[in-house]
Amino acid sequence: MKASKMLIPTLKEAPNEAIIASHIYLIRAGMIRKLVAGVYNFLPLGIRVLHKVENIIREEMDNSGAQEILSSAIQPKELWELSGRWQKYGPELMRFKDRHDREFCLGPTHEEIFTDLVKNEVKSYKNLPLNIYQIQTKYRDELRPRFGLMRGREFIMKDAYSFDIDLKGLDVSYQNMYETYQRIFDRLHLKYKVVLADTGAIGGSESHQFMALSEVGESSIIYCDNCHYAADEEKAESLDDDYKNNEKELPLEEVNTPNQMTIEEVSNFLNVSTKDVVKTMVYKANNEFVLVLVRGDREVNEIKVCNALKVAEHELMLASKEEIAKLGSVEGYVGPCNINARILVDNEVAKMKNIIVGANKKDYHLKNVNINRDFVGEISNLRTAKENDLCPICKNPLKSERGIEVGQIFKLKTKYSESMGCTYLKEDGSNVPMMMGCYGIGVTRTLASIVEQYHDENGIIWPLNVAPYHTVIIPIRYQNEQQELADEIYKKLQEKHVEVILDDRNVQAGVKFKDWDLIGIPMQITIGKRATEGIVEFKLRNENQKKELTVAEAIDFIVDKVNKESR
Ligand code: ATP
Ligand code: MG
User: Fold this and answer.
1) Pocket of ligand 1 (CB under 6 A)
2) Using one digit for the tens of pLDDT, what is the confidence trace for 88-111?
3) DSSP symbol at 499
4) Could you give all domains of the chain from N- to C-terminal order, each with its CATH number?
5) pTM recorded for the entire structure
6) Mapping DSSP to helix (H, G, I), strand (E, B) and coil, where does residue 377 land?
């Protein structure tokens, strides 16, 4: 393609809201443009990259035995009512009515649709197992769409759904997808970690996330260097500390703590460690008050609270000062004794003796409080695991790293097939629900993650197999001998099926170099003074060194590299 005919609107500056490399460079390189918050148009160079990423995913999915279909983004409310998610999904679900007042949503994910499809089309064990997938546009009215393609309200996902006759079959399908995802992210040259994950709004039992490693990732990965434990922060657990586990229970005592409201203030005032004080957070979940207790130096993990309460994330809210008052307590002085609320206790706190908590009375705390003597609660793991906490498997100090969730796989079991009646006829004549798994890759987010891992101060450095074009020919001045040589190389490379751009634009050479570095074309041929001798300058985008080559050498090198690396 000749650059003069292409739509490549590169920019010197990115909009202020763009603060991460992928957002800045994809816009500056003229690959994407924002339409409204979280909604983007793909321009010619951007769509070429997108198609290449999609095709790598498609090839590996096909090789795994999965079959591609395409379903609509429009989904009827009735199916979501069958699964119980019309209520549960909350404000992220984009809902609308047609002219007959019938209700629909724009699919944020497709469990309901695929389950319904298979329910109608597959009746017998003879047609199982089955794995069907699509690469399709999803809609989620995210609270905070941001970081360009990373968190959009419209984005492209590859979603696959497996249907098996039993748990053993599901395990095989799940493992198959796990390994397929590894092949996909390996081929996309991403550095990533696979971690244990919470199942969130999708549901099910077991789940893993694929995290592209990046400082700008919104996810926090907790992992152990010693054993293979690695989990998303939402899911990660750490070993319970045995602090204050073996003390003798002392008599309950009320202490005056005037104006001492925070954990820091109370522990300073009473001259104890923050570990001696227990934090009581007050939440409202579906109009029910819930107290959550974690040790003073720990944080509450709200995902774990939601799981313990079996509510969706959007159904859990921190109680206001006024609501705490209604509960008969005082902000800053809340505690688990003599209060009419559901009480959740982190298992570490449950093992502690003689803790300090709020007295539900202004300016007072209680000392030497003991579970089961002074209050009761439901015990589970509710705290956030942090770096340097101990590994729950091998007791080594845990580490943490930031990641971008590019994919997630789930064992759904019969969560959807049961409620939606997706059953099959067994050999013995009985009808039972199918065992399902579901598997997602954020295609557009993956594309942005590649940019996060492959860029420098001048722009993007695409791996060859996802680059919009393999190579660009840059004549300093597209005239006379330079033009002749450029045209000749252009033709030869095209004949060898190299994806090549000829920069025939009438602009300064410096502008051309800047543009192609920004766009990230992996191989660049500059044609200058030595054109008459058949000598060109050759540069790889990921190396700064230019070297002089004969035309034949340059072409051979490029063709060889394309043959080796473009898959
Ligand atoms: P997140 O926790 O980041 O909101 P999720 O866990 O809700 O994501 P899934 O339901 O697992 O997302 O969707 C499958 C994949 O789709 C994710 O792993 C992610 O790569 C991608 N994805 C999810 N939400 C978005 C979004 N708003 N914009 C772009 N990609 C997304
Ligand atoms: Mg996810």
Assistant:
1) 109, 140, 142, 151-152, 155, 157, 200, 202, 405-408, 440, 442, 444-445
2) 899 999 999 999 999 999 999 999
3) -
4) 15-72+107-214+405-452 (3.30.930.10), 253-380 (3.90.960.10), 469-566 (3.40.50.800)
5) 0.94
6) coil
